[in-house]
User: What shape does this take?
Amino acid sequence: MDLNKLDDKPIFPIRTAAELLKISIPTLRLYEKEGLIIPHKTNSNQRAYSKHDLERIECIRKSIKKSKISINGIKAMLAMIPCWQIIGCSDLDRDNCISYSDSSKPCWAHKHDNGVCATNECRECTVYKDFSECSKVKETIQNIGK
Amino acid sequence: MDLNKLDDKPIFPIRTAAELLKISIPTLRLYEKEGLIIPHKTNSNQRAYSKHDLERIECIRKSIKKSKISINGIKAMLAMIPCWQIIGCSDLDRDNCISYSDSSKPCWAHKHDNGVCATNECRECTVYKDFSECSKVKETIQNIGK
DNA sequence: ATATGTTGATATTTATAATTATCAACAATG
DNA sequence: CATTGTTGATAATTATAAATATCAACATAT
Assistant: This one.
């Protein structure tokens, strides 16, 4: 098996994740409610975090604590991700998509009724997985024109 | 004379601006220090605000108060503006430009040593003038690919 | 089946961003 | 030249976002 995939395995229950990150459980739930993180859910609806999830959360934390960007600020910044370009939406899907016009939160925080996003798992999507910080978003914006 | 240009005339001293906006003078100075606004300066370094300046500040205020985006959040979001595309930088100028890679504040909050931006007045630049809110930034990101 | 951990929701506390007040030095106005 | 407004800087205050605590109901594990 590909050993890199281990880091994607959701093996940590919420308490362990909180201990490893040195934050409280309600904070983890808050970030999720705000759409900054999408942990895996078990059959019985219990959260499970992977190593990559933890890294993502540390990144979010840095934005809040060091860069002083509010949660809504992070959401607004992530809303600038040109997801339609990344996943290659059809023009129709794109124009019908809420997240194409919305600038308040990232695409994965929206309920999608049409297009690929309606069926795909956001947690597994490149758009979600690749973007948790400003620099990555800007990098992508730079590359659209090329 | 073009009557529309009147709205760009910097005719309000800081006290008047503060009264019209119902905020304090130090707040206006803060927004400027953070690079969210560039008022005109008289020969003796006194600030003067135009009607458009006031509208811009109201827009900023809405982001802070209603959208709950922190000042640093607004700056991060504005750092996503593809300014090099808008003003049509040469590839060389672009690659040498700080604001091309930086994702912490908008281009006009940087000191520019090379390119057009070194000589131009940011206050007069389309990039500064057109962008004070998220939706305009996203609109522009949408249009790059087209 | 009893311990321990989870869920979502609400209430509370804490941290800190945003705003304002105050200051001496300088500018404008009449 | 006296009045009123400005400048930047620092200190104090206020507002509120972020984090945490608490809860009953449900899940897991031994």
Summary: Chain A touches chain B at residues 67-74, 76-77, 79-80, 82, 85, 100-101, 103-104, 134-135, 137-138, 141-142, 144-145 (CB under 8 Å). Chain A has ten helices and three strands. Chain A has a mean pLDDT of 95. Residues 1-68 of chain A form a domain with the Multidrug-efflux Transporter Regulator; Chain: A; Domain 2 fold (CATH 1.10.1660.10).
